Every structure is written in C-alpha cells, then in structure tokens.
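The record is passed on directly below:
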Amino acid sequence: MSVNQDYERAIREAEPVIAADDPDSALPSPRLGADSLIWKFYGDSRGVLGFQRLAGTENCIEQLGQAVLDHSVIFDDFLGRAKRTGPPVMKTVYSTEPQKWGRTVRDFHRNIKGEISDGSRYHALNPELFYWAHATFVDQVLYITDTFIRRLSYAEKVQIFEESKVWYELYGVSARSQPQTYEEFLAYWDDMLNRFIPHQTVVYATGYIRQGLPRPKKVPAPVWNVVSAPLNAFLRTVIVGTLPQQMRDVCGLEWNDKRERNFQRFARIMRTLNPVFNRLPLRWLYVPWAYRAWQEVGVDPRPLHNTPAA
C-alpha cells in the first residue's frame, strides 16, 4: 500500500487513539526546558507574524476545517477562540506541568467528530489529524525563526524537529503518523500542502485580507479609509507573504513578484534588527507564558542561540 493510500485509510478510521495515562508511573514525564530551541523561539513575540500561516494551514485540510465549522465559535468569536486555545498549548511547552496541559489540550478534542463532504467521518483525536495540527506549530517555530528572527542552520532545524517529538508526546495521542526524521517531516509537509482545499472555514478566516479590515463602528469612514490603507497593504504583503502558495491558491489571495520582493525585503530588515530586539525588556520580547517561564528558571534567553546560520 502506498503512503498516500495508507494516510487516506488511517484518517478515515475516525477513531481516537490516545496514550494511557499512568499517574503512578515512577518515570518523569518528558518536558522541554530552557536549553531547548523551542523554548528560545516559540514564545517570541515576533511569532504573531505567523498567526495566519499557523491557523490557515491547519484548516486547509478538510477534516480540520469541518471540525472548526461544526464545533467552534470561530465565526462569531474569533479572538475569543484564540484566547481559549492558545494559552493551553503555550503552557504545554512552558509550564512546570507540561503533561497536565498537554492532556488538557487533548481532552478538549475528545468529542470533536463529524462528517466531511464525501460522507466519511472524522475525529479530532485521530492521530493523522492531531499530528497535522501539531505539525503546523512545529512549522511555525521553524518558519518564523528562519524568516523573521535569524537564519537557522540545518543542525538547528533538525534539533527543533527532534524537540517537537517531546512536545507531541506531552499530548498523549498516538504518534503513529509522526515522521521520524527532519527530512521525512519536510516530505510530509509538502504532501499535506498538496491536500489543501478551499474549505469554508479558511476562506472565511482570510476574508479580511481580500476585502480589507472591517471598519470599527466608532471610527468615521473617512478616517478609516486613511488609517486602513497601510494596514491592508501590510496584510496583503507581509501576512500573505508568510503563506505557502497552496494556501494562497485555495483562498484566492493575490500574489506577484513585486509583493514577493517587498516581503523578502521586510524579512531581511527584521532579521537585521534581531540584535535590537534582543535588547528589549524580556517581557516585551516574549509572550506572557514564556516570559514567566524564563523568570521562574532564572535564565535570560536574550544572549542564547543568537548566531545566524551562514
């Protein structure tokens, strides 16, 4: 059976495959720490530039897009959903109880199931679906760091991938679909990009890019027309620039050589400014959960891992 056939069969099993939790185990639960590259880069505030890449790539896979449509309030409360789901994932990496928070994230998904357009079933804890969701976070660390913070060496990319296995283990979901090497992860990522579809969820979620940011009710239209112009230009260059071409295609997001050049120029400027960012107060450089974790371990991450790849 081919890899593609095996994936299609497994994802349509639509059954949760979770690890047994043993509270009496004498073995310490795995965790990441201050010596990991994921700690250094995942909680960096510049990660906000990849918010659309993270959310969009996840939901371009039909089963996950449908799960959001069926079970989420994203269409009514986008920011509220982000606030509810983001912190537990952050705490899986940065808290002193990573397994507790990983299991919390997993258990949010126990009853998320349904059907997609061809009538086949899905379940959010099916390992093929759950690992893809995790892979989008791994990609975020790799992509945002290499694009906007500093160039990563090949060895560092391998290290981040290896650390991501520990991260995934904390969720307590079967790792049967997890690639075993960084090269396998890259091949897996490319294969998944080719499975993207224009699901209603992701098309809706990128509407603000195509149509422009909606005007706040209290802002007069003439004022908003002036204020929103540079904001929309930023979104259509920098935010769309972070997206893989397959996502631009299924979401109908315009892209051309001029925007690509402008995007690459912005990325180079951001990387050049990395020494400046590393002089910022720690609470500005990191999101709150990461900042508190660095404070608790008594380590200043700003001098760590700052040498860009040649």
About this structure: The first helix runs from residue 3 to 11.
